[in-house]
Amino acid sequence: MNHRAPVFIITGGQGQCKTTFLHLVLGLIVGLNVRVRGVIAPGHVRDGRRSGFTLVDLATGEHEELCSIDPDPRCEAHGRFYFRPEGLVFGRRALAPPDPRETDLVVIDEVGRFELQGAVWAEQLDRLTAHPHPPMVWTVRRRLLDTVVERWNITNPVVVDVGTASAMATADAVMDAVWEWREAQTFSPITAAPVPGDRIAAPVLFADTVTGAPRSTPVILRRCYGPEG
């Protein structure tokens, strides 16, 4: 393993359930003593149209409204959404650079055009990718994939297309990366088996996903970005 653990990028078109796929993957691994940090952002729909997002801190289970389409003079306007200052502070705290001795996986849902414009989580992404980091899972809209990979100089992405990929196979690949990361942290000994008292309890958000995962043929699309093209 090189000095940077892989970045898994869950991608698909608009409305193609990237967050749902991520939710399912996390549901398969949260009971495996994996120390997860980061955010997941379930969306809200009003009159058949996306109306806002809630942010969930995966380390604590706490949540905060991130943005909505309702105008508010206190909020930062990006596109048609108004981002609440409390939601931005909440997310930036959740995405602070992790202690590698205490973190196995970092999740960011999602990286999009606002970050490419230098807003929302852009500064946090810059910090996370500037130094050695644990394995990460991002969600990225398919049409922005190449731009995001180039912008943050991701040299070893594992691209997972929700149209063809298996959540079970993706979770297996993420766990392989987590174990490689743990083994590389020689200053953080790994016990042979998790101690029940130290196990991370699966949050309510993922309670129903572990038993409902499809066991379809594993398909993970791997794309290499580098000098060789």
TrEMBL record:
Gene Ontology MF terms in the entry: kinase activity
Taxonomic lineage of the native organism: Archaea, Methanobacteriati, Methanobacteriota, Stenosarchaea group, Methanomicrobia
Domain of life, source organism: Archaea
Keywords: Kinase, Transferase
Keyword rRNA processing in record: no
Keyword Kinase: yes
Protein name per the record: Nucleotide kinase
Gene3D superfamilies: P-loop containing nucleotide triphosphate hydrolases
Organism name: Methanoculleus methanifontis
